[in-house]
Design a protein that fits this description.
Blueprint lengths: L7 E6 L7 H15 L3 E6 L14 H4 L8 H10 L2 E7 L7 H8 L2 H8 L9 E9 L8 H14 L1 E10 L11 H15 L7
Parallel strand pairs: 1-2, 1-3, 3-4, 4-5
Helix pairs in contact: 1-7
Length: about 200
């Protein structure tokens, strides 16, 4: 449940490169979370020691992942969040490998509901912030659809999306004040979020 001071928002930095344009959007989003009285919890997936899903299906028997790595503690942070925001660049029309590994390790949540018959999680808001240079003719659809699939498994409503095109060089997002303002507004909305029954 959310704390009296506001929502706990898991802020997922999905880029393999630190301090790039998607990180800047996430930082602005976190400013909005704090302004709304929320508590950002920053997860840098590239530094979290998350290995790829093995496809072993053990979670379909137990509801838990058998891989012991950085994801072991991340699961608790996912569960504790009142809202989740993911910030990512677009690589070949989808999310980078480090973020996809994080996504794939959500399989236990799917197994609990769809194999083991557990009740679905309570509803929470989710948001996606994406940046891309704009040269790929296939756009961002794959990144969005992949994220929406994971959000559905986690009980997240796909409540907010911010897609910024035409930024590539580090720091280029600073020249897009409307995007930075929008990221902060999304953060403010997430910072005041509360859970609902599943």
């Amino acid at each position: 449940m959310s704390t009296p001071s506001g929502a706990r928002v898991l802020c997922v930095a999905g880029s393999p490169r630190r301090h790039g344009n998607s990180d800047t959007l996430l930082e602005r989003c976190m400013e909005g979370v704090r302004r709304a009285g929320g508590e950002p919890d920053v997860l840098v997936v590239a530094d979290a020691g998350i290995s790829a899903c093995r496809g072993c299906n053990a979670c379909s028997r137990t509801g838990a992942c058998v891989v012991r790595d950085g994801m072991t503690t991340v699961y608790g942070r996912v569960d504790a969040a009142d809202a989740i925001v993911v910030a990512s660049p677009v690589y070949f029309a989808t999310v980078p490998a480090v973020l996809k590994a994080f996504y794939d390790r959500m399989q236990p949540y799917w197994a609990r509901v769809h194999v083991l018959g557990e009740a679905p999680p309570g509803r929470r808001p989710g948001a996606l912030l994406v940046v891309r240079s704009g040269g790929d003719p296939f756009g961002i659809r794959a990144a969005v659809d992949t994220t929406r699939s994971v959000f559905a498994v986690l009980g997240l409503d796909y409540a907010h999306e911010l897609a910024v095109e035409g930024v590539d060089a580090p720091g280029e997002i600073e020249g897009r004040p409307e995007a930075l303002t929008r990221a902060a507004a999304i953060g403010a909305a997430l910072g005041s979020a509360t859970r609902r029954a599943g």
